[in-house]
Amino acid sequence: MKPLKPKKRLGQHFLNDASIAEKIVSSLQAENIRQVVEVGPGTGALTPFLLRHRRFETRFIEVDADAVAFLENKYPEIKGKLLHVDFLHYPLDEMYHEPVAVIGNFPYNISTQIFFKILENRNLVREVVGMLQKEVAERIAAQAGSKVYGITSVLLQAFYDIEYLFTVDEHVFTPPPKVKSGVIRLTRNHVDALPCHEPLFVQVVKTAFNQRRKMLRNSLKPLLPGFPSDFHLYGKRPEQLSVQDFIELTNFIEKNLPPDRFKKKT
Question: Is the whole model's pTM more than 0.85, yes or no?
Fold first, then answer.
């Protein structure tokens, strides 16, 4: 069969180094997890290591028809485990009734969407090992005080412990990307629900970082025009706030909002 030609429309760069692929798969700890989902196997760099892994039962989710045909030809044992669907529209909560782990060389152009999909299914997805653009990986793993700490950092770290594992150079991909890649691991923490109104929490985080250079007293005016100057976070910028600070800020804003400005969802 002719080699699979990567499709630019997918934003995918295919890993061609088996040792790195094996290292990525071995980074999946998956304690007390049997079910694994590989997102976008493409030409199957990670796939053989997952197929041979006796502890895991893996499903492979691929949106590209050419890649599906290629994988089924190269790995006959994958039939029945390979689904030709879009992960972003895949009903994880309907397909799984036990904890799962997600792994993949995520397409650069939808990696953030993949993580928000995971966040929506956080009570099901217990662990994630993903390779993505280094800049995005660093942003997700960044701690408060970092210049790259932002919306995805806060929202994901509210529910996951995140580790930046290692960097992958450009030359091990076909075609080579113009940037390096980073591999991160997300492990579900013990937070079942935030001690605040979660939709407002998301709104506060996004509003604050949309004007990240401004102090909170200015960036949060759309939510709370009369931001009290005696509140201890009054003069800080969003990148200085931890997840717990944002929770405290959310509770403070909700308490001080006019009754007609925000209605709790029932």
Answer: yes
